[in-house]
Amino acid sequence: MNLHDVRTYKSAEPLAREDQLAWKLAAVATDPVPVDDDVIEMIGNRIIDNAAVAAASIARGPIRSARAQALGHKAAPGGANRGAPIFGLSPDMSVSPEWAAWANGVAVRELDFHDTFLAADYSHPGDNIPPILAVAQAKGLDGAALVRGLAAGYELQVDLVKGICLHEHKIDHIAHLGPSAAGGIGALLGLPTEIAFQAIQQALHTTTTTRQSRKGEISTWKAYAPAFAGKMAIEAVDRAMRGEGAPSPAYEGEDGFIAWLLSGPAHVYQVPLPAPGQPKRAILDTYTKEYSAEYQSQALIDLAKRMGPKVGDFAQVESILIKTSHHTHYVIGTGANDPQKMDPRASRETLDHSIMYIFAVALQDGGWHHVKSYAPERAQRPDTVALWHKITTQEDPAWTARYHAQGSDKAFGGKVVIKLKDGRSIVDELGVADAHPAGARPFARANYVEKFRTLAQDIVEKAEQDRFLALVERLPTLSGAEVARLNFVVPADRLGPDAPAGIF
Hints:
By secondary structure, this protein is α+β, with helices and mostly antiparallel strands. The protein has two domains: 2-288, 2-methylcitrate dehydratase PrpD (Orthogonal Bundle); 295-430, CATH 3.30.1330.120. The chain is 44% helix and 8% strand. The protein is built from 20 helices and eight strands. The protein has helices at residues 21-30, 37-56, 61-71, 97-109, 129-138, 143-163, 174-189, 193-206, 221-241, 257-261, 298-311, 326-332, 348-351, 355-365, 376-379, 382-388, 397-404, 445-456, 462-473, 480-483, and strands at 2-6, 117-118, 122-123, 269-273, 317-324, 391-395, 414-420, 425-430. The strands form three sheets. It has a four-stranded mixed sheet with strand order 6-5-7-8. Helix 2 (37-56) runs parallel beside helix 18 (445-456) and helix 8 runs antiparallel to helix 9 (221-241).
């Protein structure tokens, strides 16, 4: 990997296109290097993972709304753009690809239950899959092209997350997703670097939003935001292919992204990118979730599962202190100073971002369920509320250092001190979740298939599950017609009631 310095330039300073970050991202995306076998395997895993969580959310309100919006933009039969399918519906009901990416992106993101990557910033790189797959399906591209596009999307997302912190400036992480999805689509279509460059800049410019979507009263927009970035990426690529330009240089400009929205003209970011000819392997740095909760809670759920039996009578708990990283403390802990995170009537999206709630429920239940653990009656149970309100978090510099560390020292967990009323303390710690690549039982293909089977049970018929999984097994050799069916269909009565009427 090469480290690239990225800073602000005055308009009077010359900055060749080839020296701009957007061009360098485009050059990586459009570099036609072969995709390694282990990367192809992991891409298949994440396609399965996305489908699993989409199946589990298929009848939820936000998904029904997004699906109804998308169905207002059905693709015309025949022609070069045959449209793309929506999760749960027959491929014969295809829609324009940007709207398929919208509907499918919301389904994937709704339960906060797919893959993650955490470094200088954080991300869900699997959010690249809906827009890139939708374009592949609409253009009739084969499995080899799809693999090429997804490897590029993951690479750009991970490299940006390693090099540029957004959250310290309250910029939402989809500002890295728009450019990565645009670059991935450029790789998928085999576009020239110049076109991918313009598309990446357009996508950055149109997907930069604030982090209020993940603060205070967190709403369903948390699921919509990545889908919006994917939709914007497709539109940006379409415009760039028609010869339209973008604000440039988008990252380095005097009135651009770094100068006014990030650390300003005095700051130099360092973004790692593969050298020309190097394979795109960044997906292997990412990890999925075993539990439907914010990633920083994954290890702490595993820790709660093993600490619960040692506590026994939860009424005897005096206090619980979670010592953890800066990010965990300030985003999902008591350091956020969000009273909603302690509110038994808070939304699912808010409870998902409350490690106090999550740890209390996992401690009592000895596990986590993507529906039952968030049910209002579960959140409002008096003994749970009492335990929940005894939990505080604290930043520990050692855990913050491990959060930002490289290699085997990197960790996202914490140390928990449970004080009992009789004066005893129960203390334990865990660095990474059991399902993490460095954890006690790392996820492999069989685990992804099991997750899909579990979440799709009673939603997707067994034969349809088998058909979908069989396609993924042959991913790089799929024909264009087979890629178009890389989806799942469910019986109509399992899609939930019609969404409320809107404009479309």
